[in-house]
Design a protein that fits this description.
With 384 residues, the protein is of the alpha+beta class. The strands form five sheets. Strands 4-5-7-8 form a four-stranded antiparallel sheet. A three-stranded antiparallel sheet has the order 6-10-9. Strands 12-14-13 form a three-stranded antiparallel sheet.
């Protein structure tokens, strides 16, 4: 270990009474003598959590950060106390690098996979580029990775909400972090934090669904069109790959943590074809709209469509977004005219917020038969 330029290089072990080598390594270190950490703290698994899990699995930590972390779980006399669930989660939230952007894989493949109306169990060839006589296809199929599905109906109901959770995970991983709680994932996908058990439960359920769904992507033809010289290129594996740790405090306070083992396959694929949208977090949280499952998926859908309009490579001429198409993809059902009106008003409120931020210049209502409002037309700002 050294402290050159304020950096501490640590050899990480499981700090417990069952590992005397780790204990001796620590007590003989300069760090232990410098910050006068009580013996109790290094005999506790909490030490490993503080140093290792809060530092994204790395063995290098800023010296001042190390002291601050340990200070948060010691009392005035310097003796160890176990933090409450909120304190422990706050320590983690404060020291995990929050992604400044929402990153969304925006490929035809992702659009297809998270569309409830599609048959995901059949092997499907998607045309991703090229003219009729020179079209490039990607073959894909999803299926269960486990015989028991833990009450999750798969794979038919992979939804727009699951896509939002997936995008939140991609954003966290792309920022250099491979560990997160369901609360951090929620914040990454919405721009706002929450302590709602219901909202966090929805995130957890979606994560479990994505973990237990396998995907097969034959990328060969598209790869060859980009210069690949091999015979085949295939992506396959779970949509998300992670280990889960659930911790309960005071018998009823539970939080879930996730250690992601690899970059999501759909993110890898989107990187290969250079089709990833980057959205400033201000666009997620810069309004007063209450986050519900419906408002979350509507916001993500609108952002993807507007970003596609702004991308000159897409050569999109239409600026219209139809409510029927949007609501169907997002899985939103309105049983009455009043419910439909409220959903439309939510969309208008989002667009008004983005207009104030300068993200769009404005929007116009699109009307159909009998002057019925059927969608919106986006007015984009002039290119600088």
């Amino acid at each position: 270990m050294n402290r050159e330029k304020g950096v501490v290089n640590l050899k990480i072990f499981i700090m417990s009474e069952n590992d005397p080598r780790a204990f001796d390594e620590y007590m003989n270190s300069t760090l232990a003598r410098t910050i006068m950490t009580p013996v109790k703290i290094v005999r506790h698994e909490l030490y490993k959590w503080l140093v290792y899990e809060n530092n994204h699995g790395k063995v290098t930590m800023d010296f001042n950060t190390m002291i601050e972390l340990i200070a948060k779980v010691t009392d005035k006399n310097g003796t160890l106390r176990i933090p409450t669930q909120d304190e422990k989660e706050n320590i983690q939230l404060e020291n995990v690098k929050k992604p400044p952007y929402l990153l969304m894989p925006n490929t035809k493949l992702s659009n297809y996979l998270f569309d409830k109306s599609k048959n995901l169990t059949a092997l499907t060839a998607l045309v991703v580029s090229g003219a009729k006589e020179d079209k490039v296809t990607v073959k894909t199929q999803v299926f269960l990775s486990l015989e028991e599905d833990f009450g999750i109906d798969l794979p038919k109901n992979i939804t727009a909400y699951d896509r939002a959770v997936h995008d939140g995970v991609c954003s966290i991983i792309a920022s250099g972090t491979m560990v997160a709680t369901n609360r951090q994932i929620y914040e990454a996908m919405t721009g706002k934090t929450t302590t709602s058990p219901q909202a966090l439960g929805h995130v957890t359920r979606s994560l479990n669904k994505l973990q237990r769904t396998k995907i097969f992507i034959d990328y060969t033809q598209q790869a060859k069109a980009k210069g690949f010289k091999g015979d085949k290129m295939i992506f396959k594996g779970n949509l998300l790959d992670f280990q889960e740790v659930e911790v309960t405090f005071n018998k009823n306070e539970t939080t879930s943590g996730y250690k992601f083992l690899s970059v999501p396959i759909l993110y890898k694929y989107a990187t290969e074809v250079e089709q990833i949208i980057s959205v400033d977090k201000e666009l997620l949280s810069g309004d007063n709209i209450t986050n519900t499952d419906d408002s979350i998926v509507l916001r993500h859908y609108l952002l993807r469509r507007i970003e596609a309009m702004k991308n000159k490579n897409n050569r999109m001429t239409s600026r219209k977004i139809l409510f029927d198409t949007m609501f169907e993809y997002c899985g939103i059902k309105s049983e009455s005219r009043e419910q439909l009106r409220r959903k439309r008003d939510t969309v208008f409120s989002m667009l008004q917020g983005w207009e104030k931020l300068g993200y769009i210049k404005g929007y116009k209502e699109c009307k159909g038969d009998k002057n019925k409002i059927i969608g919106v037309e986006i007015v984009l700002p002039k290119k600088k």
